[in-house]
Amino acid sequence: MNNAHSHITFVSFGRITVGTVQCDSIIYPMTVFELAQDTVDYVKERPGIHLLLNFSQVDIVSNILAGELLRINALVTAGGGTLRLCGLNRNVRGALKAINLDKVVEIDDEVEGAAIRFARSLVA
Q: For the chain, what is the total number of helices (H) and then of strands (E)?
């Protein structure tokens, strides 16, 4: 299943859905809110989703994104699903760690194999 949204593309691989962020920078509030809304809309239609957000194409983010990711995580977990992040460069990881997002959402440094590791964790 492949759905294209303005700032993110979703592709399902078995039990895991990978949302690849299509922006190189997420610094403007409008971009943050559009990305978040695209993701929220997708998640609301799929209770129990196991969502892996891939940030490998993103170079820089606003700290506003961290709050939106917390909101998305709450929605995903309320529906019985799980949220993980992958592909964060040092700048993006630093911005998200500043509010301890890494304590709430698991972050996989590697993009390669992240969906497989995520799927395996669901079986364990």
A: 4, 8
Q: Cα(44)–Cα(112) distance, rounded to whole angstroms?
A: 27
- pTM confidence score: 0.92
Give me the amino acid identity at 22.
Q
Hey, how many other C-beta atoms are within 10 angstroms of the C-beta on 84? 22
User: Do residues 38 and 8 touch, judged by C-beta distance below 8 A?
Assistant: yes
Contact 43, 78 (CB under 8 A): no
Task: Give 51-79 pLDDT, tens digit per residue.
Answer: 999 999 999 998 889 889 999 999 999 99
